[in-house]
Amino acid sequence: FRIMLAYVRLSFFLWLYTSICCVQTTSPAQFMDDISGYRSACKKIGWEPKQDCTAYNVIAFHANLKSNLNNLSQNTTIKFENVQLNKGNGYDPATGMFTAPEDGVYSFTWSFLTNKRGTVYIAAVVDNVDHVHTCINNQQSTYINTSGHLIYELKRGNKVWIRTWYLPATFIHGGYYTYFSGSKINSI
């Protein structure tokens, strides 16, 4: 029995070692052949996806502020001009607004940094209606960061943006500290 157990352990180790090492040496053509084989095997046992992954368009953006913002009045749209990613071209840095290119469920996140005694009230807005509020009010740290998240079902053409609300924003730190991101997470 000990010999059999040792053989099983050795076999598993060799299989694991081969799997890891061969991943780096597999050619693209061989990889595609392997994937086709896996798909074929899945179909034979009735285990196949309802829709091919390539049927989905990626819609995602990420943008941050180029510079600090001072003394913004209430209801000022924040324009995140430094666009890192804009798949689907839904985000417009000139307006600070994301326009849904197609129907779906979308996820949005934002974060902002302010300085000592900073006051910033931020709203996530969908078609001119506030849906999430985040704030920092007269905080006492040297700098402090806060963030928010919104998941929302959008129709094509709906707009989402970030704006100040309630009180004027005293200071919002620019650069990578303050950003707005979003992506489509599901079709409807």
Automatic annotation (TrEMBL):
A matching Pfam family: C1q
Primary location group: secreted
Q: Where in the cell is it found?
A: Secreted
Residue ranges of every copy of the C1q domain listed in the record: 54-188
The answer on whether this UniProt entry bears the keyword Secreted reads yes
* Gene3D superfamilies registered for this protein in UniProt: 2.60.120.40
The record's annotation in SUPFAM superfamilies points to: TNF-like
- Presence of the UniProt keyword Signal in the record: yes
Its domain of life reads Eukaryota
Keyword annotations: Secreted, Signal
GO CC, sorted alphabetically, is: extracellular matrix; extracellular region
Q: Which residues form the signal peptide?
A: 1-28
PANTHER family under this entry? EMILIN ELASTIN MICROFIBRIL INTERFACE-LOCATED PROTEIN ELASTIN MICROFIBRIL INTERFACER, EMILIN-3
This one is known as C1q domain-containing protein
